Amino acid sequence: MQRQRRRDTAIELALRSQLHAAGLRYRIHQRPLPALRREADIVFRRAKVAVFVDGCFWHGCPIHATTPKRNNDFWVAKIEGNAARDRATDQALHDAGWQSIRVWEHEAADEAAATVRRVVKSRSGRG
């Protein structure tokens, strides 16, 4: 597990590149809310948009999720806990007036960037 990248994954870098090329500026790996002990991968403070790039295994992707045969009970509980934490994070951000966007690692970066760009532009009042 130590070899798993926590940040700067291929999809995250591709997404950030697309967003930067579109003229959007953002912060990376920051807490959207100081009291929230979770970092978003990409944060647009002015628009109050937090983008999370989720790995299919770690967050239980409905399309690609798998569970290991060894120590199955541990992994099922771990992945369900991650998904529950994701839902709690989204709810806390929503309650604070933020929009959270979840991007799966298997999604195309250009499609994800188009979604993020549309939400940021609509919430920032520009364009």
UniProtKB/TrEMBL annotation:
Pfam assignment, any one: Vsr
Gene Ontology MF terms: endonuclease activity; hydrolase activity
Keywords: DNA damage, DNA repair, Endonuclease, Hydrolase, Nuclease
One BP annotation, GO: mismatch repair
Family under the similarity heading: Belongs to the Vsr family.
NCBIfam families cross-referenced by the UniProt entry: vsr
Name of the protein in question: Very short patch repair endonuclease
Upper lineage: Bacteria, Bacillati, Actinomycetota, Actinomycetes, Mycobacteriales
